[in-house]
UniProtKB/TrEMBL annotation:
Native organism taxonomy: Bacteria, Bacillati, Actinomycetota, Actinomycetes, Streptosporangiales
Gene3D superfamilies xrefs: D-Amino Acid Oxidase, subunit A, domain 2, FAD/NAD(P)-binding domain
Keywords for the protein's UniProt record, in alphabetical order: FAD, Flavoprotein, Monooxygenase, Oxidoreductase
GO molecular-function term, one example from the UniProt record: 4-hydroxybenzoate 3-monooxygenase activity
GO annotation terms (biological process): benzoate catabolic process
Name by which UniProt lists this protein: p-hydroxybenzoate 3-monooxygenase
Record domain FAD-binding: where: 2-338
Pfam families per the UniProt record, alphabetical: FAD_binding_3
Length: 395
């Protein structure tokens, strides 16, 4: 079996890449180890940057997002008994975010690929990339083989692609955080129209949502937290304590439908390519979810990789492919810094001394009182514009 691009992983990166390549007349095969049902039901983040929204619409897969997604023009930072709105419409006019679950993006992309006759294979085992420096191919299943010109490693942080690069080629940069996030999905109307990021001495909490009837919450918890440590009643009690810290705000509770613990990690691998293997999304980098950048970075990588592959398959030019990693890493490191900054600004660190806690509160006072400082947060949060050379030339 042969295709132009062998794609490992059917998350947002792999599926969007397959779709964008299809729009450019480039063939691909997506090999995913989980079932379609699992991939479509996996609850992940839910904030789309302006650039991601534009990309999905330009690529013809944004119709349901436009109908069901929730445009947001600001967020609230809540600390010290007061709430402070970061108003995107004032700080970054014309740019906003859209709240739309990542699994919804995945469903839309799978539907688009299958409707176009795309080759997306689920429950594929034993996926292994080979001959990355010459004529690449992927083995999978029981001795099956996919020959391809290029392999895209879109298989996430725990995938096989990054591991298949020879020892000593990649440099990794990592930061672990001494806490995790307990994520909760609840069948209850949001208690606020916008997202609320709150910093308290007990820890961080986030009020988000998925629809007018579904709320999404996160609690900062110890890194070794087990879900069974947090029965529903304890979750609601802690969310109340951390969120009900301003006059007039009451948290509405309801049936919790999903809970899970997410470790917090910053990670980058350089370069994001080796031979004919190109890494995109979580396979190459991980950010703490505080800045809501994970999915959006995957989209940005895929936009750059699509342009590079389109140029290569059009006339054999490899300049953009050779520069893929460098082009992606500029945005990756900006998002890494922003995500680290939001995390250190809003979370409590047990080993932080009194001086450090005062610095944190001083920075929050600055961000919520200075237009210049708030603009910095806003422009990173809604997403910096894509550079021209990665603009999508959709047919
Ligand atoms: N073989 C085939 N598929 C694999 C393998 C493998 N060896 N290993 C992992 N996969 C699949 C996973 O099952 C998953 O569906 O690769 C896919 C990777 O998808 P994501 O982890 O969602 O990564 P990505 O597409 O880069 O999207 C990044 O997803 O995890 C979130 O927070 C992250 O929002 C960010 C987004
Ligand atoms: C979410 O709604 O899942 C979400 C929102 C904002 C974040 C992280 C997650 O920073």
């Amino acid at each position: 079996m042969r295709t132009q691009v062998g794609i490992i992983g059917a998350g947002p990166a792999g599926l969007l890449l397959s779709h964008l390549l299809h729009l450019r007349g480039i063939s691909s095969v997506v090999l995913e180890r989980r079932s379609r049902d699992y991939v479509e039901r996996r609850v992940r983040a839910g904030v789309l940057e302006q650039g991601t929204v534009d990309t999905l619409i330009e690529a013809g897969v944004g119709e349901r997002m436009r109908r069901e997604g929730l445009p947001h023009h600001g967020i609230e930072l809540r600390y010290g008994g007061a709430g402070h709105r970061i108003a995107f419409e004032k700080l970054v006019p014309g740019r906003a975010i859209t709240v739309y679950g990542q699994q919804e993006v995945v469903k839309d992309l799978i539907a688009a690929r299958l409707a176009a006759g795309g080759d997306v294979r689920f429950e594929v085992e034993n996926v292994v990339p080979h001959a990355l420096e010459s004529e690449p191919y992927i083995t999978f299943g029981d001795g099956e083989r996919l020959d391809c010109d290029v392999i895209a490693g879109c298989d996430g942080f725990h995938g096989v692609s990054r591991q298949s690069v020879p020892e000593g080629v990649l440099t990794t940069f990592e930061r672990e955080y001494p806490f995790a996030w307990l994520g909760i999905l609840a069948d209850v109307a949001p208690s606020s129209e916008e997202l609320i990021y709150t910093r308290t001495d007990r820890g961080f909490a986030l009020h988000s949502m998925r629809s007018p009837a579904v709320s999404r919450f996160y609690l900062q918890v110890p890194a070794d937290t087990r879900v069974e440590d947090w029965p529903d009643e304890r979750i609601w009690d802690e969310l109340r304590v951390r969120l009900e810290s301003v006059p007039g705000f009451t948290l509405t509770t309801g049936r919790i439908t999903e809970k899970g613990v997410t470790p917090m990690r910053s990670f980058v691998t350089e370069p994001m390519q080796y031979g004919r293997l190109y890494l995109a999304g979580d396979a190459a980098h991980i950010v703490p979810p505080t800045g809501a950048k994970g999915l959006n970075l995957a989209v940005a990588d895929v936009r750059v990789l699509t342009e590079a592959l389109a140029a290569y398959f059009a006339d054999g030019s490899t300049a953009l492919l050779d520069g893929y990693s460098e082009a992606c890493l500029k945005r990756v490191w900006r998002a890494q810094h922003f995500s680290w900054w939001m995390t250190t600004l809003l979370h409590t660190f047990e080993d932080e001394d009194a001086y450090g806690r005062r610095l944190q509160l001083s920075y929050l006072d600055y961000v919520t009182s200075s237009e210049a400082a708030a603009k910095t947060l806003a422009e990173n949060y809604v997403g910096l514009p894509f550079p021209e050379d990665a603009r999508l030339n959709v047919l």
